[in-house]
Amino acid sequence: MENKETKPIEIATLILSAINILILGIGGYVFVGRQEADMYRSSTDLNNIQFELSKIKLDVAKSNAQIDALIKSATITEKSIELLEAVRPKVDFRINPNIEYKNGYLTIAFELVNNGEYELLMQPTRLIISNKLYRSNLTKIENSGVWSENIDLQQIEATQTIGPNEKRTIAYTVKLKNNTPKIVYYYMEYLAETRADVVQLIDGMARQLGLPSVLPSSKQVTYRYGTLNL
User: Fold this and answer.
1) At a CB cut-off of 8 Å and minimum separation 6, what does 116 contact?
2) C-alpha 177 chain-centroid distance
């Protein structure tokens, strides 16, 4: 009898054990599934974050490249302007305070300074001694009382070359008329010109760089005027 009674109990115990095992298995599967799902979501989120970061890095790289290009372009533009401006003469022209007047002859010393990077051809074009000051209006000066005799500065002083950063003092002597007043005015004019071979060289370099073919003027007229006490 006992064997017959214990069998249903054993069967029930086995069934409960099987149910527990099944529940544990299902629970474990659900737990593992959730863990895997969470891990997948985390992995997906991480991939998305990495993708966004890569986009940001790409944008930063593009921005840096654009900035570098702008800096390079600005540098090239600046160098190009410097190259073109090298054609333009840069001359400092001033009168020397040492002026001598003796026996009707007036000697005026002028100081020329080449502040450019290339040699310049310097040529005197005009020296006028007048009883009136009209500044740069040469027509009025020439039509007023001109007290110096007619002189040709081309013959007095030929065209000369002045090197970069070179300073040179040049003196001119003119004969004044006997009735010249004690106070007169001078007007001195000089033509500075960049040498033709230098202009051609810079023009060729500018064309190679694709710069405008129109160069600044290679000539510059410089003048000074003032009062002379004889």
Assistant:
1) 86, 88, 89, 90, 91, 164, 194
2) 53
| Beta-ladder partners of 162 | 120
Q: Give the Cβ contact number of residue 1 at 10 Å.
A: 5
Residues 159, 111: contact at Cβ < 8 Å? no
Q: Do strands 120-130 and 160-162 pair parallel, antiparallel, or not at all (unpaired)?
A: antiparallel
For Cα atoms 225, 226, 230, give the angle at the middle one, nearest 5 degrees: 130
Burial 93-106 (b: 16+ CB within 10 A, else e): bebeeebebeeeeb
Amino acid at 155: Q
Q: Which 3 state secondary structure label does DSSP give 137?
A: coil
Give residues with Cβ within 8 angstroms of 12, minimum separation 6: none
**What pTM was estimated for this model as a whole?**
0.54
Which residues of the chain carry a pLDDT beneath 70? 1-83, 96-97, 133-159, 211-214
DSSP 180-218: --SEEEEEEEEEEEE-HHHHHHHHHHHHHTT--S-PPPS
